[in-house]
Amino acid sequence: MTTITFTNARLIDPETGTETPGSLTVENGVILGRDLAPAGEVVECGGKCLAPGIVDIGVKVGEPGERHKESFRTAGAAAAAGGVTTMVTRPDTTPAIDTPEVLDFVTRRAREVAPVRVHSMAALTKGRAGREMVEIGFLMDAGAVAFTDCDHVVTDAKVFSRALSYARQLGALVMAHPQEPVLTHGAAVTSGKFASLRGLPAVSPMAERMGLERDMALVEMTGARYHADNLSTAVALPVLERAKAAGLDVTAGVNIHHLTLNELDVGDYRTFFKLKPPLRSEEDRMAMVEAVASGLIDVISSMHTPQDEESKRLPFEEAASGAVALETLLPAALRLVHAGAITLPVLWRALSMNPARRVGLPGGTLATGAPADLVLFDPDAPFVLNRFTLHSKSKNTPFDEARMQGKVLGTWVGGTRVFG
């Protein structure tokens, strides 16, 4: 019997919405209770924050096909160092995760080498090509927790509606990246004065709203469970609000970069800031922060997308999109706390509890009986990020050389320490 008591901690509980001093005891990989008599191994927290481990939806791992960019071993190490105890990985691999056999391969690889929990999403259509839906039932039996074509929009509304109908019958969650694909094609930045001055191909924020409007109409028609993985614009929020008010089974997430950066950070064509969707205006960024604080946006994710040096050392228009973020998710998110825009329990609701519940996983709380997946962190510890110290194989972070606050002191998965 393995027992650990965390003493003198600031307990961050998103379920109760509280931040209280106290102790937490875990036994045999689950939480036993708070403020019990110390037993077993004692971890002195020194007044630092103890919270449920982060559940990160939408992590890209390069296995199979792009292991040179990221492997389950390196992604798992980065996750543990960043306080992420569960990674929900994307199917945009080579080949795509669209059969039980490929899903079984990545599940076994993750189990063998990753120190954190790993659950996989599967593609919604074969090859993520948007023409023929996958065998959703077989993939669910093989362990898929959700279905998505990632940033490939299913342009054929009939195909998408059939997939949504089939998913509803099986209770499957469908995730989508709402954008109007024709308007978005080839765009590198958000339209506006900055894009014009830089001479870069741009897309209007309205493309996101148009994509979400279509998806909400199809969800209303089919009754499917739906999650918009990466909203980024203020004009899309009223669409989401109406869908929730109408009782549709809809949730939405936002990328940490769209909460902490804006279009001006691209500066002189800095490709580490090229993301998909592109960085938006400061007004959009503030609207997304307010939506997280109010609960309209349910989930914050890293949208971890490793890219090698060769794919980023190109003209901005040609460079690959995406950034690594497993290790920067927590300190970047703490910028919102330090700015007074959000509280720690509300932040952890979006980082841990809501994503766990949406994909049907236990955890995300400090309740008795919950998995002992925990992160101990100092929210005020300052540091300057050096991208070459990151555990990820790829080093494409927009926060290189940025001043940040918030260091992970320890990470536990099922009561076993995996970092610190």
From TrEMBL:
Keyword Amino-acid biosynthesis part of the UniProt annotation: no
Transmembrane segments: none
All residue ranges annotated as the Dihydroorotase catalytic domain in the record: 47-233
Keyword Lipid biosynthesis: no
Native source species: Sinisalibacter aestuarii
Sorted UniProt keywords: Pyrimidine biosynthesis
Biological classification of the source: Bacteria, Pseudomonadati, Pseudomonadota, Alphaproteobacteria, Rhodobacterales
UniProt signal peptide: none
Stated name of the protein: Dihydroorotase
Pfam families per UniProt: DHOase
